[in-house]
Amino acid sequence: MFETLPLAIDKVEFSSKDIIAYTIDGQPINWGEILARLDFWKSQLGNLSQIKVAVYHSDAVEFLCILLILWSLKKIPVVPANTLEKTLRAVKKETDYCIGEFPEVTSSQNIDSEQEVSSSDKKSSTHALIIFTSGSSGEPKAVYKTFKQLNSELKILENQWGNLLTDTLTLGTVSHHHMFGIQFRLLWPFVSKRPFVNKDIIYFEQLLQLSKYRICLVSSPAHLEHIPKTMAWSELQKSMKMVFSAGAPLPKNASLEVNKNMGVFVTEIYGSTETGAVSHRDQTKDPLWNPLKGISVKKIDNKLAIKSPAAIDKGWYVSEDLCEIYSQGHFSLKGRADNIIKVGGKRVSKAAIESSLKEHPLVEKAFVIFLEKRKNRVGAVIQLTRTGSVELIDKGKIAFQKSLLSCLRGNIENVAWPRYWRFVPKMPVNQQGKIKSTELEELFDKKN
C-alpha cells in the first residue's frame, strides 16, 4: 500500500502495533506510539495563527510527527538544513515561529498570517514545505515544494526500486533536513510502509547493531569515501540490500571499495532540491547517468533540461549543469554553467581547470576559486594523495606547483592558470559531500 501526502491521520491504514520506525539500537516504534506523539504535537501547535512554521528536530520520528500535524492544520513547515546563525537569518525571512530543537529561539506571534506564499510553481496552491538548499557557497536559498512535487517524486522512486526494497529497514548518514534525506530516508519508506531508523548514522559501526535487518542505506560521498577498512564487514554483507548516494559525485575507487566491503553496488542519484531525483548510475558499470522512469532530459543551450512532474507541472526545467546527451537519454555532466569565470578577458570553466589538475597522479581533489580581491586571478586548493603530501615536503611548494601546472598546458589558457595555491590535508565538506567553498575562500584571505 502506497500512501499519498498529506496523510489523513485518522484514515491511514496502520494498526497500532505496526512498526513504523526503529531506534538506532534496534528498538521498534509502533503506530500506537506515533499516535501518542501526534497528540502531543497537536496540543503544542493546535492554536497557531502563523501559516509558516520553522521545524528542526534531530529525531526523524518527532520531525515526521510535527510535519503531519502541521499539514493537518494547513500549515507550511519551513525546514532549515541546520541551525547555524547564517541559516536562521534566512529562516527569519520566512517565519519567526520555530518548533523543535532550535538554539535559544523565542517565537513570536507577529507574522502576518495572511502574508503571500510565493513559489516557483505559481499554478499550484498547495505547498507542502519550504526547504533550504545546502549548497557549498552563497546564502541559504528557500525552495518551495508542493504536495504534487513530493508525491510525484515518491511515486517515481517506488516505481524504480520499490520491488527491490521489500522488507527493508531504511537508515542513513544523510540528514532528513535536506531534500535527499527527507525523501529517501523518511517520506519514501513511510508512505511505502517500510520502517526507518529515527536517528542519523554517525559511525558505520552502528550498522552492526541492526545487522539482523535487510538494510537500505542512504548516504553521501562525505561518508562513503571514508568507510573503515578494519570493520567486520563480513557480518553485514548479508544484511546490505541497497546503498544510495547523492549530494556530489562519488569517486569510482570509493564505489568499488563500498562494493568490496558491503557486497552491494552504490546507486548514485543525481538531482537537486528544485527537481527532486532525476537520474541514477552505478559507475562501476557505466559512468553515464540514466534518467529515472517517467523523467526525460535534453540539452538546451548546453545545459541539462529536465522534464519531470517532481520539478514543474509542464515544460522543461533548465538546470545550470552543462551536459552531453547520448542514446536512450543517457547523459554526462560537464560542470556548471555558473562556474564560468572571466580571467584576462577570457571565459574559462572552473570545472575544466579542476579536471585538468586532477589528472595529476598525486592530486586527490582540486577546487578552483575566482579571487576578485586579488585582481580577478585564479586560486586553487589541492588535496594531495599520501605520496603527494610527502613529495610536497621533499620538493617544496614552488617546485610542486610547477609540476601541477604541467597538467594545464595545452588544456587551459595561461591567463587562467592558478596564481595562488593552498594545500589542505582534507577538503571541508558538508553532510551531503559538497565542498564548503566559503571555508576554502577564507584560506586566501589569510596572509600566508
TrEMBL record:
- Protein name (Swiss-Prot/TrEMBL): AMP-dependent synthetase/ligase domain-containing protein
Biological process (GO) annotations held by this record are: fatty acid metabolic process
What are the AMP-dependent synthetase/ligase domain coordinates in residue numbering? 86-289
Query: Which Gene3D superfamilies did the record assign?
Result: 3.30.300.30, N-terminal domain of ligase-like
> Which family is annotated?
Belongs to the ATP-dependent AMP-binding enzyme family.
Checking InterPro entries in the record gives: AMP-bd_C_sf (IPR045851), AMP-binding_CS (IPR020845), AMP-dep_synth/lig_dom (IPR000873), ANL_N_sf (IPR042099)
PROSITE patterns found in the cross-reference section:
AMP_BINDING (PS00455)
Which terms in the Gene Ontology molecular function aspect does this entry carry?
Answer: medium-chain fatty acid-CoA ligase activity
Q: Which PANTHER family match?
A: ACYL-COA SYNTHETASE, ACYL-COA SYNTHETASE FAMILY MEMBER 3
**Pfam families per the UniProt record, alphabetical:** AMP-binding
